[in-house]
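Milestone M4 deliverable, item 7.
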Amino acid sequence: MVRKGLRRIFCRPGSSSTSKKTPTINLDEDGQFTDWLESILLKEKAKQDEPIQQEVGSWTEIRLFLSSTFVDTQAERDAIIKSAIPNVNRKMADRYIRIIPVDLRWGVLAEESKSCFDIQKTCLNQVDNCRMERKSTPWLLALRTDRYGWVQDENMASNGFEKPELYQWLDKLQETKKRVSITSLEVCHASQTLGKNAKYPTVFVYERKFTHDAKEKLKNDKMRWVFDFEYTSDEIDDPDLKFQYSKTDKAELYQKDRNDLNEYLKGKSHILYSEFQADYAEGDAMYTCKRENAKSFGVGYTCNLQDFIEMVERDLTKAIEMNFLSAETDTVSKYELETIQHELAVKLKASTFVGRADMRTSIEQHLTSEDETNVLILHGDPGCGKSGLLAAAAGDAIKTRKNGHFVFVHAVDSCPGSLEAFLRRLRANLASWRRDHGEIRVDPNPPESLSDLKLSHHSFIVEAAKHHHKKRITIIVDAVNQFRDNLRAWEMWWLWRSAYPNNVRILISTLNTENNTFSNAKDACTRHTCLEVANMSRDDLVEMISGTLSRYNKKLTDSDDPLLGNQMELLLSKSASPLYLIASCEALRKFGIFEKVSQYIESLPSEISSLFGFLIDEWSEEYGKMFVEDVCGLLALSKDGLLENEINSLLDYKEAHEKPPGEEFLYESSFSRIYDSIASFLAAGGGGFLRFFHDQLKYTVRSKFLDDTFTIKTHKWMRDFFLSVITPQYQYGKKELPPDFYEHALQQVVYHQLAATENYDYSCLKHTLRNIYFIRERITAHQQNSLNEEYVKAMEVVPNEDVACLKDWAKFVQLYSENILKFPHLSYNMAMNQAPSSQVTKDTLEIERPKEASNWYSWANIPQADDPMSVKYGSGGFDISASSPKDDIVAIAAEDKAVICDQSSGEVLHKFKQEAFSVFISPDARRVFFGLKNGAVVCYDVETGSLLMESSPLDGAVCWIGESADGYISAGTAHTRRAICWGDYNHVDSLSTFSIDDLKLTKNWSAGEPCYMHCYSKPAQTLFSAHKGSVSGFHPIDGNNTYKYSTGGGCTYSIAAHPSEKRIITGNNDLVVSEWEVPETGSELVHIREITLPLLSGWAYGGIWSCIYSEKGDKIFATEPHSQAIHVINEDSVNEAQLKGHADCINTLAIVPGSNQVISADRGQVSILWNLPSGDFSSTKQSVDEKVLSLAFNVPEDKFYTVSDSHLRLWDVESMELEKSVEFSGFYRSIVAVHPNGDHVITNDQMSMLVYTATSLERVSDFQILESSDGSITDMRISTDGSRILITECRNHDSHLSMYYAWNVADPPNATKHFDFKKVEYNGRMFSCHISTDGTLGLFGGHNDARIIDMSDGRVLKTLHAGCFLSRFLPNSDEYLIDKGPNVIHMDAEGNELGVLKGHTHTVKDVAFVDDFVFTASEDGEIRKFNLKTGECVYGFFNHRCQQFKSMAATRSGDCIIAANSNNMVYILKRCVT
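Output delivered:
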């Protein structure tokens, strides 16, 4: 459907005239010019070409020539380049097709504009460059307006063009003496048929028609000459217009020719001709150079072009869809597409490779051999031809795939990328190959976790090689020195492992010195050989030069020509570097005067860097110095290359911001014009990111242009441009689609921010690394790893006062990336729910708040200071050790594995299949020692993850390793069941001392009795062992027993030494931490003090599982299993704080040397790094500081109740102050329920219901509900009218006798039994219950099933055969919710499933209903809000401090949510207000 104001003229194939009559000489007569065009341009009957079949993974670039007069089509050209083409490119990106506009507004130099031949050569050659094939119609878009264009005085002969056979028509036009404009020549040249016409037209002609209003405005506008036909045969008296029209007696003829050409174009089937309307606003035409009594210059802009943009977009899209067949990529993976790109890159390099047969043979012998030398390192100086040689060898290797061998090729220089991309693609390709060869159980996808990917890299290769020992595993990597500096790529850890079988064959290339990759590769691979790439032979060089020039129909003399000399010899005398000679050929192919070639070669510098400088000077002369400087600056200073569209947009950005007043353009050229000259020096692999192919050119650019001022200016330019691309996406809701290079822009901007900063002002980071919207965009683009690296790099350069800010943000990213990925729209809310003192909160307060925030919740009672939690690690453990922050290592002995992590990011660096129970990091942090269950001690290299040494096994599990006397480490066996004394552990443990250099055992001795832990006191030079009720001390070298002293109580679970004084601390199972002094003489420890931790009911096997001193020794840290917290004890024995965040029992604690940090590991899946406050801990505390089991609002909803296993408390919602508290003998399943009369609140102990007054919390009555002490109350729910309460029971031993009960509580102090369920045995424990709003139905859930009962008599009405822990009726409905695993199921009364609420990862413990929504609180530490009608999760509250939620409640309006967490905190969430 054509929009109003648009008229489409399209002729069906075969409807155009193809007259063959002989043209007349005088083409100025009526109809003659049109007839002549028909006979000459359409002389060949063109065949309709078949659509072009695209190759999988190969980019197709369509160069689209824009033809029009310039001054009057500025707006249309901008609309095409800035809107229509980017929109098409965005749509076609997944088809690997992009349009590159050829816009010569900037591409015609002043000298060319004075020469008809030069302008014709420039423009018409560019039209030819837009043909997909030599004789196909070009891709051309013409704008036809009232203007005619520059009339050419003479037409250039066909032999002056690059493709003379396409210009026979121009020779014939010259014979007729007919003179037309350059714009007409462009369109005529594009319209000729050469044998092939596209299936759908690729020549697009758009004729502009002004609206009636625009015509009226222009009538009296003094600038109307910009849009008018520019020739006149009459004198013009108006002084403003007199010189703006060219007076000629041929004006009417030119106008007629313009109209005739339009009519000719309309009737052609291979041309799409359309009309569009444009408007004009007064002032949109302006002078660019106004002169008195002479011709002035100006430009004009039209407006209201949206319909035009949409038309162009539709036409281009349809032309692409009709003329290109998409590659069949449905069955092709992302990694297969990448593989195609890499192999196309090496194929292109190999196409120009010649000679070096002996080296090629050596490489082939290595790749096909099965000797012990797995790795061949190809190395040499820049420009010696390594890449070409490797590409040729790779091509040979690829051919061996037909024999079933695996061949993997990675061209780092042509397809720049990260080591991660290499590892993922290698893993995917090798997995696919293994599956193709019968291993169908191999996972075809690389591990999602980068840590797992790294850890399994070598073992996966080894498995493949061993399983397919008759096949070769060949891995070829070009230019490893050009990997990005991340994941320690330059250390070459990824290259080789000693376990590689001989059928693994690896070939890499690298420079001799850059980034130390050559030396590191040799160090990493003990089984390697090196092959230095030396100079090519003269014959090979001659063949290379001749082959390169022959592609452009050029040839050098190779003998002593009397006139020209020996040009080949002259060129070879300059340099024997292949890079130099290839660059010289690129310069020669554009040099047009054959007689002066020798002179030109003579003028070429002899050094490669000087030659590149020479070429840059030539480009500057041709395209403009500033333009070349800027283009080269962009390519040299970009982080990892730029897309061509990015470069064009960068140039447009600078044009818009820096064009001098009164100037029409900033540049004399365009990138599409210079591209032809520099293309041979660019790499465009890896998705089309352009960068200098060789670093030598980059170095030359830097030395020539990039002084400090220019460098910083260019980085600022890229910084500001990328921010202009990114920041519009920060807003919520509907927004414009970003450009197709958006994700690349996200990865570029911080690099340029850091590089562009002057005077240490890094406030610009508030737009990126300190901006929650930027964080959201990076994480949703799966760029967290590179984001983490940017924080590290930023903290290395910013001032100290900014480091703390970035640390807060880096911590936030580490803790919240998973949640941001799941709920990106809630990222602002997550940032605002950090502590008020956190820089994350402060920075987020400064940015625009999203409108959607009114439906979100803020944490109202958040502690003022940021909490100490810094990093979470995805593994718990029996033991943990940390290096200094500078060395940045954490090691975890996780019982079933051994793990080494990056301390600051939490990333797993290495994971080993070892049953590890203890760990020690060497003082230099280069080695990690693990003690194993089998009694051995193993040592791993931190950098490579390789096993360095292993000790002989001891008699028992090694549960402690630590420093000892200088040059030694000590290890001790001990009880592996942390802090549980069943009385059956009678193993006599031992201690041993090893040499730290080779793990040779120097001494082993018996501890004399069972042990639970050990430590070493450096000040006392003594090893200590903790036993049942005692401590022993031993000399670390000879093992002599020094001390033996009773510690009292039962088992001494933990022991630690003071860092600088002769003191130790012990932790017992009676929750007492004792401090002892080690005497100078004597055999008894001196008791200094003891600290008793709060006695918490619950687990009978508690005690101090771990205790340590702080770095300075002024504090003690201790942990016990019940609170899952770390107790911080000061020198006055005051327990001044608890560090909370673990959701399981904490096994062990360790100090981070050289810092104010402590690290902890629990017995689950989490270890945590804590930053300790330097001063008072009170600001990190919350008012509610106990393990709340249940909570509820009072009737007015201005207060709430909490119940623990010892207290019932009343709190004020607004002030969050405690109003009343009573102690009672509660139970770990106590529940609080508020009676609807508002006068009473009900809770329970193990067996009884307890009734209190609502305000004063006076107990007014209690009622024993259960009949047996074997049972306990698990849930209590009061009916809406307050008449009934339903109670469920869980019996421990006789679980089949568990019951439910209903009591009459209309008058709570005088409650009476209504019924108890005895008639039908449930045969299982019961956990939850609820009463419908109308009070007629009851619901309970338990191990076996869920049941609906009649509340009048307890009869079972419906049984749902699915066990559950949660059961709740919906308000005013007989529909209900039950839990099933981490999900909540929405059911109707008949037991039919209505929906599933998904998203939680652990059991949902409680729910609260508000209107059509339900809030859920889960053991995964999340609160979510679901739409009950759709099942959609519309909100989530996430905070890194949250552990397991136990209970929740909501006000009727939903404005306030309260939830109790197992970290001793109650979260009060209030709806955000504007």
